[in-house]
User: What shape does this take?
Amino acid sequence: MHEAQRDQVAVHEAGHAVAYYVMGRPIKRAVVALSEHRVVPVERPRIGNPEEATVAASGWAAEKYWYRTTISDPQHAQDAINTAWLNLGASADEEAIERFAAEFDDVAEDEAWLLADELVARHWALVEAVAEALKAEAEFGQRRLTEIADSCGVPFGECTADSLRTGDDS
Assistant: This one.
């Protein structure tokens, strides 16, 4: 994996890790390595279905936000986003959201993507910090994620799908 690709993957996985964190579901591990990249949550406690769908969408939301903040020309940023999507940027995430929407009445696909965009925008500094740590350390668990979040002033479990819908930060 070359450096730009590693940056992209780290941002993507950081989006998932941050979403789990702020929505109150601890992780077992987050990893960005040559052979593996993913975030594994603990089995219990689970969070609500809309929150799980938002977590699934948060990796792609982080990638989009990253492109828009690192590429100054908006059209070039959108072109990069489109290219990344065409290269299967978030196909597994999209499939997970589709499964949630098919299985649960309280999950809407379009809303999951919108809530993820809002979550990432609110917590971009934490997403960046987690991505940098993933690039430097390759793998860590909940304890390290909490340390990073504490340094950014972000409390565990601070938001829900409802708070993202309403814009309520409490």
In short: The chain has a mean pLDDT of 91. Residues 49-70 form the longest helix (22 residues).
